[in-house]
Amino acid sequence: MSKTGWMVFLLSCSMGAVASSPLAARQLRADSLYNERNWKDAAREYLTIFEERAKRAGNVVDPAPDQGLSEELGKIAFRAGRAFTNAGELEPAAEWYRKASSLFKQLPLNDNYYVAQGQLGSVLDDLGDYQAAIDIVTPVVAYFKQTKDSTYAAPNMHNLAMLHYHNGAISRSIGLLTEAIAWAGPGNTAQQAMSYNQLGNIWADDLKDERKALAYYRQSLQLKLNKAAPQSIAAAYNNIGLSFKNLGMSDSAFFHYSRALHYARQSAIPRSLADPLLNIANLQKANGNQQAARQAYDELLTLKEYLPADQLLTVLVYQGTVANTEKRFQQALHYLRQAEGLLARAGGLNDKADVKAQLAIAYSGLNDPLRAVEAEREYARWKDSVYSREREQSLAGLMVRYQSAEKDKALLAQQQELQLHRLESQRRILWLIVGVSLVVLLAAFLFFLYKRNEAKARQALQELQLKEQKELNRLQEERLRISRELHDNIGSYLTLMSAHLEQLHDDNCAESVARYEGMQHSLTMSMRELRKTVWLLNKQRVSIDEIAIRLRDFFKPIHQNGMHIRFVTSGDTTITLTEIQTTHLFRIIQEAIINAYKHARCTQVEVKLEVDGERDVLLLVHDNGKGFDANAGSGGNGLRNMQSRMKELGGELVLHSVRGNGTRISGKIRTSAYGEGG
C-alpha cells in the first residue's frame, strides 16, 4: 500500500505537549527508536506513554476528558499503530489505529480522524480483509475529495484502487487509479508515477495487454526521471524491460534491464540490484549466452541474503547445472546442496526433481555412486510425484469443469426463466410507455395545431393592421402631394392675379390694359398648370414618351418667345413611371427650364431622357446660356427643391456650370425606388 502523504502527518505528531518531564523523556526515546527503525521497541515505548498519560488523566477506560488530551493521546496511538505496522504485527497495528480514530473523532477538525482511518484500511488490506478495508477507505476518499485536499485525496484513491484490485474489481480499480492521477496533478509526480506503474501492472498481469502496460510504465518512468530516487527509477526500467521481454523484443528488454541495473547501482541499496540482475541472467540464458548469464548469476550469489528464497533457488540450481556441464562437480555439489536446503520453504515438485537430478550427476562425477543412485531414486520419486500431481490436477480440473458445467447449466436454466419473466415485465412496461407516449404526442400535436392556428390568426390580424396603416399613410402622402402641387404652381398664379386686381382701380387706361394682359397670362398659365396637375393625378403610370409630349406642350409659350427647347428620348421609352415619379421628374425639368429662361439668357435648351439597360431613367438638361460659378455656392430654393425631389426618386442631381459655357443638370431616376417600371 502507498505510504505517500502519511509521513507529512507523522512529522506533525511531535509530543511536545506532554507536560511532565519523565513522559517527555520517554517520548524522545520512543521517537528516537522509531527513527532508528527499531519498530518493536518503539511500539512498546508508545504503549507505555499512552497508558501513563491516560492514568494521569484519571480515566484509563475512556481517556478523553478534553479535546487537547484527545489529540495528544490520538497522536501517541497513531504512532504506536505505525510502529506495529512496520514491525509486521498487523493485529496490534489495527487495534491502535482504531484507538487513534476514536480519539481523533472527538475533535472539531476531522482530518486526523480520516488519516487514521486510511491507515487502518491499509492494515486491513494487508490482513486480507478487503471488503472491510473498502468500507473504511471509501468515506476517507469522499471526505478529502469534498475538502479538495489533493495531498490526501490522491494517495487514498490509490489505496482504495488497490483494495478493489485485491477484491477482484479490476475495472473499478482502473477507474480509481486514473482519478488518483488527475487529483495528484503536476505537484505530486511521485503519486502519479506510482499510479501509472500500478496501471501498467494490471494491464500486464491481469489483462494481458503488454503494449498498453508498456505505455503506462513509460509514463511512470518519465515522471520518476525528474526527481525520484535511483531505486525507484531502476524499478521503472525493470518493468519496461519485462514488457519488452514478454513482447519478444529481447534487445529492448536487455537495454532497459541494463538501465535498471545502472540506477540500482547508483542507489547503493543491494536489494534493488536483485531484480535487474536476475532478469539479465535469465535473458542471457534464454539467448544462449551462458558466459554472460553465469556472470550475472555469480553477482546474484553475492546478494543472496537479499534474495527471496524462490529466486535464490533458481540461481543456485542454474549455477549447479552449469558447473556440472563444465565438469566442475565439486562446485556444482556446493551450489546444489544449498539449493537442497531451500526446498523445504521454496520451490515446487519440479524444482525438487531438478535438484535431485543435478545432484545425481554431481555425485556420479565425483565417483560417489551410492549417493548418485540415492539422488537418482529421489529424482524418480519426485518425477512420479510430479506426474501424479499433474494427473490429479488434471482429474481435479476435469471434475471442476464438469461441476462448473452442471452449475452453469442449472444457472442458465434459472437465468432463462428469470429472463422470460423479465421480458414479460418489460413488454408490459413497454406497452404502457408506448400508450402514454402516444397520448402525450397526440396532446402535444393538438396543442401545436392550436398554437399554430392562434399564431396564424395573430399574424393575419397584424398584416391587416399593417396594410390599413400603409393605406392610410399612402392617402396622407397623396393629400400632401396634391396640396403641394396646388400651392406651388396654381397658387402662385392666383396670388399674382389677386395682386393685379387690387391694383387695377388705381391704374390709368394704358396700365390697366397691361395689367389686364398680365392677368390674362396668369389665368392662362393657371389653367395650364391645373390641366397638367389633373393629368398627373389621373394617370397611375406614365410612359417616357407621354412625359416628353406633355413637356413640349407645356413649354410652347417659352418656345414661341424665342428660346428653342429640344426634347430627345432614347432607349425603351415605353417604360412607365408612377404618378409620384412623373410629378417629381416633371417639376425638376420645369424648374431647370424656367431657371434657364429667367437667368441664363440662353437661346437653346436640350432636354434628354434616356432609359438604360437597367431600366433606370437618365436625365440631362443642357443650355447654351451665360453659365455661372457652380463652386460659389449660390443656389436658391429652386435648386434645393430640385435636389430634394431627385433624392426622393432615389437618385442624385449633379450640376455643372462654367461661366460662358452654359449649364448642365444631370441625374438618374431609379425606377425600383417606387417599384419596377412597367
- CATH superfamily of the domain at 540-669, by name, is Histidine kinase-like ATPase, C-terminal domain
Anisotropy-based shape: elongated
- Please bin the fraction of helical residues: over 70%
What separation lies between the terminal Cα atoms?
A: 93 Å
Instruction: Report the sheet with the most strands, covering strand number, pairing sense and barrel closure.
Output: 5 strands, mixed
CATH topology-level fold name of the domain at 540-669? Heat Shock Protein 90
Give the count of helical stretches.
24
Structural class, from secondary structure content? Answer: mainly alpha
Class of the domain at 540-669 in CATH? Alpha Beta
Strand proportion: 5-15%
DSSP summary, beta strand count: 7
Rg from C-alpha positions?
56 Å
Residue runs with pLDDT of under 50 for 5 or more positions: 1-20, 59-64
Strand order of the largest sheet: 2-4-5-7-6
How much is the average pLDDT?
80
CATH architecture level-2 label of the domain at 540-669: 2-Layer Sandwich
What keyword list fits this structure?
two-stranded antiparallel ribbon, five-stranded mixed beta sheet, Serine Threonine Protein Phosphatase 5, Tetratricopeptide repeat, elongated, Heat Shock Protein 90, 678 residues
Describe this entry's structure for a reader.
- There is one protein chain.
- This protein is mainly alpha-helical and 678 residues long.
- Strand 6 (654-657) and strand 7 (663-669) form a beta hairpin.
- Among the domains are: 1-127, Serine Threonine Protein Phosphatase 5, Tetratricopeptide repeat; 540-669, Histidine kinase-like ATPase, C-terminal domain (Heat Shock Protein 90, 2-Layer Sandwich).
- The model is unreliable at 1-20 and 59-64 (pLDDT under 50).
- It starts with 5 loop residues before the first helix and ends in a 9-residue tail after the last strand.
- It has helices spanning 6-11, 21-35, 39-57, 67-86, 90-104, 111-127, 130-146, 150-166, 170-184, 189-206, 210-227, 230-246, 250-267, 271-286, 290-301, 309-325, 329-342, 349-365, 369-504, 509-538, 544-554, 556-560, 579-600, 637-648; strands at 541-543, 564-570, 576-578, 604-611, 617-623, 654-657, 663-669.
- Strands 2-4-5-7-6 form a 5-stranded mixed β-sheet. Strands 1-3 form a two-stranded antiparallel ribbon.
- The protein contains 24 helices and 7 strands.
